[in-house]
Design goal:
Blueprint: H1 2-19, H2 24-30, H3 35-59, H4 64-79
Helix pairs in contact: 1-4, 3-4
Length: 81
């Protein structure tokens, strides 16, 4: 139960951090990317976001379900909708 509560708290704090920065999709639109260029850019951007989020989860000393939940939400926020 503690890990679920911790994951919820972490998710709320992580979404605020990415809300200020540009998202991958927003950047792709600004650069007017399409087709293969957009696909390549999105893959690289998502991979970079995953690395950054994993480092952030490690810095917060998250493990197991809390780390997975944090990383998933963090990457989703970085990629954008």
């Amino acid at each position: 139960m503690k890990s679920i509560l911790l994951a919820a708290v972490v998710l709320l704090s992580s979404s605020a951090a990415w809300a200020d920065g540009p998202t991958c999709k927003g950047t792709a639109v600004d650069k007017k990317l399409a087709g293969a260029a957009m696909t390549s850019f999105m893959k690289k951007c998502e991979a970079d976001a995953a690395k950054t989020c994993d480092i952030s989860a490690s810095d917060k000393k998250l493990f197991g379900a809390a780390k997975t939940s944090f990383s998933k939400k963090c990457v989703a926020d970085a990629v954008g909708s």
